[in-house]
Amino acid sequence: MITRILPPTDAAIAEAAALIRAGELVAFPTETVYGLGADGLNREAVAKIFQAKGRPGDNPLILHISALDQIAPLIACELSSVAKKMADAFWPGPLTMIFPKSARVPENVSAGLSTVAIRFPAHPDAQRLIAAAETPIAAPSANRSGKPSPTTANHVFEDMDGRIPLILDGGECLVGVESTVVDMTGPVPHILRPGGITAEQIAQVAGASEVDSAVMRPLAEGEKPRSPGMAHRHYAPNGQLTVFTGDSDRVIQRIQSEYDCAKANGSRPLILSMEAHVASYGDRRIESLGADETAMAHRLFALLRDADHMEADVLFAEGVEAKGVGLAVMNRLGRAAAFHIVEV
C-alpha cells in the first residue's frame, strides 16, 4: 500500500472522508496528537486500527464527534448536569468523557467494556473530517503500539508508511500529549488519563474531581485498561528511560553521575533536561524539555522520537511535580520509563 501525505484542502478532506466511509483508515491532526481514524460504527473498519497499530484488543478507543448532538446515539444515558457543564467549559478541546455506551457502539471500540469514550476535538481539520465523513471517527494515536505518539505528519509516516492510504498534514500539534480522559459514570469526574485539561480545572467547573491511582503506577496483574494510555510501558523510546525526581541540584548531580557511568560502559546516553538546567550538564549530550510543564507536554513525544534517531540506548530525564499539566507529563514519562522513577 502506498501512503500519501496531503495538506487538508477541501479535496483532500473529501477524499479522506470517502475513505472513512468505505471502511479504510486515515491519519488526521488534532490539537493533542495525530489520530488514526476509522468509521467508529463499523466493526470491521475499527479492527483495522488494531491491526495497523499492533494494538492489544483490550485497549479501548475514543469516538470523535464534530457536534454535540452526535453524542445521544452513542450513549445509554442522559447527560448529567455535571457532564453538560464539562462540555460547555472544555468542548471542543482536549477532553474525553466516558459514559455508558449504547448498542450502536461496536464491542471492539470499547474493548468489551460497557462504556464508551467520546471527544469533541478543537482542531478545525479534525472537525471538518468528522463532519464530512458523517460518522463518529474512532481514533487512537497514529503510531505503532507502545511507541511515542505522533505530533507531526512525518511522525505518523515513520510508523504507518505502507499500512494506511492517507495522512492529512495539519502541521505540528499544539498540546502535544493526548486528551484528558474522565470517567463520568460516577458522582465525581474521575480522571483515568491526565492531559492538557487539568484536575484543578475540572474541579473548578464540576465542583470536584479525583485522579485514579493507576495514573502514576503500572496496572496490576489482570487489571483491565479502562482508558487508552493505561498500558504498563507506553510512549516508549527504544532506549531505557529513567526519570529522576526530587531536589533539582541533587537530580542534576545524580543524572551527571549516571550519564558518565553509562558513557564509560560504552552506552550512548542522552539527557532530557529542563531548559534552565541545560548549562549544568556541560558538554554531555542533552535535549531541552522546555521552560515549563506546558512546554514539556508539547515537546516530550517529539524528543522521545528524536532519541531513537540519535540512537540513544540510555536516557535520563528530569521529572517535575505531578500536579497541573505536570501530572500529564509525569504520567507519560512514567509509562515511557515503565515506571522506572527514582526519587533522589
- How many strands? 16
Calculate the mean pLDDT score and round it: 95
| Fraction of residues in β-strands | 15-25%
Helical stretch count?
9
Strand order of the largest sheet: 1-8-2-3-7-4-6-5-9-10-11
- Rounded Rg: 20 Å
Order of helices and strands: EHEEHEHEEHEHEEEHEEHEEHEHE
The class by helix and strand makeup works out as alpha/beta
Shape: globular
Helix content range:
25-40%
Q: What distance lies between the first and last C-alpha atoms, to the nearest angstrom?
A: 49 Å
The poorly predicted ranges are none
Biggest β-sheet, characterized?
A: 11 strands, mixed
How would you describe what is shown here?
There is one protein chain. The chain is an alpha/beta fold and 344 residues long. The protein is 31% helix and 19% strand. A hairpin with a 6-residue loop joins strand 2 and strand 3 (35-39). The termini are far apart. The model has no long low-confidence stretch (mean pLDDT 95).
What features would you highlight for this structure?
344 residues, alpha/beta, eleven-stranded mixed beta sheet, five-stranded parallel beta sheet, 19% strand
Summarize the structure.
The chain is of the alpha/beta class and 344 residues long. The chain has nine helices and 16 strands.
Produce the secondary structure layout:
Blueprint: E1 4-6, H1 10-21, E2 26-28, E3 35-39, H2 43-53, E4 62-64, H3 81-90, E5 95-100, E6 115-119, H4 124-133, E7 137-138, H5 153-160, E8 166-168, E9 180-183, E10 190-193, H6 199-206, E11 210-211, E12 240-245, H7 248-264, E13 269-274, E14 286-290, H8 293-309, E15 314-318, H9 325-336, E16 341-343
Parallel strand pairs: 1-8, 2-8, 4-6, 5-9, 10-11, 12-15, 12-16, 13-14, 13-15
Antiparallel strand pairs: 2-3, 3-7, 4-7, 5-6, 9-10
Helix pairs in contact: 1-4, 8-9
